[in-house]
Structures are given as C-alpha cells and as structure tokens.
Design a protein that fits this description.
Strands 10-9-8-13-11-12 form a 6-stranded mixed sheet, sandwiched between helices. Strands 2-1-6-7 form a 4-stranded parallel sheet, sandwiched between helices. Helix content is about 40%, strand content about 25%. α1 packs parallel to α5, α3 crosses α4 and α9 packs across α10. By secondary structure, it is α/β, with parallel strands linked by helices.
Length: about 290
C-alpha cells in the first residue's frame, strides 16, 4: 500500500493484533517514581505484570502525551519514502495529543506538499481506539484508499460503544480523580463505577455497581441493550487490566452475541489512571452513555 495506518499506544492492542492488521503504533511515555519508560504493544520496556505489581506496591504512575518532536520523528521517514499517512489518535476528550500532532503535521506538510497526512480524532480510547483500528486495518487490507479509510474511520467511530468498570478506586483517588471520601466509602461498600464514553470520547460516570458479583451481569446487560442488530456477524473486544479471570468470565457471558470476541490488555498509558482490575467491553452499536 502507498500509505501507512498509525495510532498510538493508548490503543491497548496486543502485539499479535498489531501484526494481524498491520498498524504502526507510536509508543507513549509513562513514569514510575523517577524512571521513564515507553510503552509499546510488546511491552518491551516493562512487562505488564511488573507494572501492575508496582501499582499494588503503592506506586502512582504518571503519563505524558506524545510531543511535537516525536511526531516529526515518527512521521518523516515515511514521508521521505513517498508514503502518505493516516493517524487516528486518542480522543480529544481525554488528551491534547490531537492538537500537538496537528502543529507537527502543519510543519511537515510545508516540507512535503505532495504527501497526504490525515490526523483523525478517534473519539475513542483504550480498547475502543484499538477496536476502531482493528476494523480500519481490516478495511485497509480489503484495498481501501487512504481517503476511503479516513471516511470509514470517521463514520465508524460514532458507532463504537465503550463500557468500563473500574475496580481500583485508590489509584483514582491518588491521581486526584475522585475524593478521598468517595474512595473510602466506595471501597467499604464495594462500589464499582460504570463508565461510558460520550460523543467526544470523554468518559462519563453512568452508575455505580455494588459488589464484584454484579460487574459481569451489568456489562452484559449494556452489551445486549446497545449492540448492533447484526452483532452476531461482528467482532467485539474485551479489555482487562490485570484481570484475565474477569475477562474470561465476561467473554463467556456475551459469547452468543458476537461472531468473535478478542481479549486485549490494558497497558500503562491507561492503566496508570484506572489501576488493576478494570474490565471493558467494546463493540459496534448505539453509542449511548446513559443508564
């Protein structure tokens, strides 16, 4: 193909999935204590079990978006080689990555005026972004041009449904995303926030699930409500953050609703904010983040 499909490491695709669809994944930086790492799909700088162990041991990781110079360095070799680029990034509702990328692209476009460089706000995150890229990769393999793929991504992103359940309220508290009082009572009462994604990709707390035993049935309920009527011919993604047992239980609960269900791992970029235990399910349907 005469163009490259790109995304960033917030997509939480596994190395196997990346190879399957032929997408280039730009690494993203995270910090634990005074050490900095880049996250790649193959977790070459820090295995996921080490990352989640560090969290359980009390570490509070931090993340940063891809900077201007990095975008130039990632994109330019392909432009020099005569290839066009389409890059779908983490939702603007969650990160400033999109705007930073546009600044770099404007400069590169002046240097390479004959090349197409498309930057698309995915309006998705984590497994939602990975799922969108998985579908885009399949479309690309069918022979879609770069313009056709851009249109496909922009149309399909509106149909990607995200449902997350966060287990680690302590990390959300340490990161300043919920109050200490909320975290204390949530932990005592075993309350798990149910989170959806709005039309911009911003995360919305929809309801509270009381008790671990209610997590899987609740997620399955929303899948049944929102999934496309042709879901049995489609693929769905389940994402897990150090919770493979829960992911397998969820896959069993929704098994008959889809043709295929793939499990992906939540990496440090998203795991730094949601912590250990998170479960998510992503699929095509009616994007509705209401209870």
């Amino acid at each position: 193909m005469d163009y490259v499909l790109m995304t960033d490491a917030s997509c939480d695709l596994t190395a196997k999935q990346v190879d399957e669809i032929g997408v280039e994944v730009l690494p993203m930086e995270f910090q634990i204590e005074d050490k900095y790492y880049l996250h790649y799909p193959d977790c070459r700088m820090m295995p996921l079990d080490e990352f989640y162990k560090a969290i359980k041991d009390g570490a509070v990781p931090k993340t940063t978006q891809i900077n201007f110079d990095s975008f130039k360095n990632y994109f330019e070799p392909y432009l020099k080689a005569g290839k066009d680029i389409i890059y779908a990034c983490i939702a603007t509702g969650l990160s400033g990555t999109y705007n930073t990328c546009l600044i770099a692209v404007n400069e590169l476009q002046e240097k390479y005026p004959d090349r197409k460089i498309y930057v698309v706000d995915s309006r998705c995150d984590s497994a939602g972004l990975g799922f969108l890229m998985y579908l885009a990769g399949k479309k690309r393999s069918e022979g879609a041009t770069i313009d056709e793929l851009k249109e496909y991504i922009e149309e399909t992103r509106e149909k990607v449904c995200h449902w997350f359940v966060v287990d680690d309220l302590e990390l959300l508290k340490k990161g300043g995303r919920i109050s200490s009082l909320t975290a204390t009572f949530g932990k005592a009462l075993q309350i798990k926030p149910l989170i959806g994604a709005d039309e911009t990709g911003g995360l919305v707390s929809v309801s509270k699930i009381r008790g671990r035993s209610n997590v899987i049935p609740t997620l399955a309920k929303y899948v049944k409500r929102d999934a496309d009527k042709n879901s049995k011919k489609q693929t769905a993604f389940i994402a897990q953050a150090d919770n493979m047992e829960g992911a397998k239980e969820l896959r069993k609960a929704i098994k008959g609703m889809f043709k295929e269900i793939q499990i992906c791992d939540v990496g440090p970029v998203i795991g730094s904010h949601v912590g250990s235990g998170m479960l998510a399910v992503v699929f095509l349907g009616d994007r509705n983040c209401q209870a």
